[in-house]
Amino acid sequence: MRSLICLLVLISTSLHGQKSNTFTLRTIAFYNVENLFDTKNDSLIFDDDRTPEGSYHWTQERYKIKIDHISNVLSKIGKETSKTSPDVIGLCEVENRQVVEDLAHHPNLVDKDYGIIHFDSPDARGIDVALLFKKESYLPTSFKSHRLLLFDELGERVYTRDQLVVGGLLNQEEVYFIVNHWPSRRGGEAISGPKRVRAALLNKRIIDSIQKLNREAKIISMGDLNDDPTDNSLKKILRTKGKPKQLDSIDLYNPMEKLYRKGIGSLAYRDKWNLFDQFFMTSNLIDTNKTKLSFWKAGIYAPAFIRTQKGKYKGYPLRTYSGGSYTGGYSDHFPSYIFLIKQSSH
Question: Looking at the record's lineage, which domain of life comes first (predicted)?
C-alpha cells in the first residue's frame, strides 16, 4: 500500500505540479545558512569580523554571492519531486531580518511570495532563527520567540538563540512549527551537552503547552540541534522514536534517525558525519491512509554543486570560508527537508 501511495504522489506531482486530483504535497525545509551576515558593523553584537574591514573581509560583493547561492539552494530543495520550492523554510545563522528579506526578494525566490517571521535573539554573535512561508500555502495565526536561559559554572548568563514558535493553518489543519538552533559543541560534550539538554527541555515545554491548548494540533520541530538523532537530548528528554510502529500518542517521531543509522549526515567534521539538521514531530502526523496532512518522507539535500569537489574535504559541504580563506561556497551544512501529503477531498 505504501509503495502505491508513493507511486501515485510521484506520478501526480510530475504531471500536475504540486497539487493534483489525488494528493497535495507540501515541502518543509530547514537550512543552516552559515553566518549570513550583512556588511554593516552592528555595535550591539560581535560581528566585527564579518565586515569589509574585518578579518574575513566580508564585502558587499561577497555578501551578494552568498545571497545568490543560498536563495538558489532554497529554490531547489525538494523540487525534483514537488516541482516547486518549499512551502515552509526554517533558517538559522541569519544576522537580522534584512538578510532574510534579501533572500526572499532575490530573483530566485521573489515570485514565490514568501512571508517572513523573525525575532532578534540575544545570541552574542547576533545570529538568529527565522521562518519563511509561502503565503498561498501557510496562514500564520500566532508566533512567539521563546528565550533559552543558560548559565555557566560561575552563574554568568550564556546568551544563545531563542526558539521560534509559529502556529497557523496548512491545508486547513492547525500546524505549529518550532525553529531551533541549539547550543554548539564548543568546549566538548561534557561542558556543552547539558546546554542542549536544557534546549530540549524548553522544546518539550513548548510542545506540552501547545497540546494543552489543542490536543489535535500537529507540531513539527526543526533545526540545527548540534546533536545527532541518537543523543540524550532527543532520546531521553524528548523521547523521540525512529520507527512509526514504536509510537504511542505522546511520543515524538524523528524520521532523521533512520537516515542517521544509514550513515547519512548533514555536516562532516574530522571524517565523521553528523546529522544535526533534524525534524521531529507529534505522532498525529503519522496517518497511514493520508486522509489528513501526514508525514511522507525525509531527506538531506546534497547535490554536487553544494559539495566540495576535490581535496581532503571532497564530498563535504562547500563552505563560504575554509581555514579562514574565502572559498565562495554555500554553507558548512546541507539542508534537510520533509514531505507532507494529504489526499485531496475531490
Answer: Bacteria
User: Considering only CA atoms, which of 144, 120, 114 is closest in space to residue 132?
Assistant: 114
- Per the domain annotation, does 2 fall within a domain? no
Per the structure, the count of domains in the chain is 1
CATH number for the domain spanning 89: value is 3.60.10.10
Alpha-carbon distances of 338 from 25, 127, 282, 307, rounded to whole Å? 10, 24, 14, 21
Across 74-172, the runs of DSSP E, i.e. the strands, are: 88-94, 114-118, 128-134, 138-146, 150-151, 157-158, 163-170
CA distances from 222 to 106, 252, 270, 313, 329 (A): 24, 12, 25, 27, 24
State pLDDT tens for residues 72-125: 999 999 999 999 999 999 999 999 999 999 999 999 999 999 999 999 999 988
- The x, y and z cell numbers of residue 77, run together, are 530543495
Q: Is 264 part of any domain? A: yes
**Exposed / middle / buried, residue 302 (Cβ in 10 Å: 0-12, 13-18, 19+):** middle
In 3D, which of 273, 317, 328 has the Cα closest to residue 31? 317
Neighbours of 344 (CB within 10 A): 14
Calculate helix-pair angle for 60-76, 97-104, nearest 10 degrees: 60
The reply to whether 27 falls in a domain is: yes
pLDDT tens digits, one per residue of 33-61: 999 999 998 876 778 888 999 999 999 99
Domain hosting 178: range is: 23-343
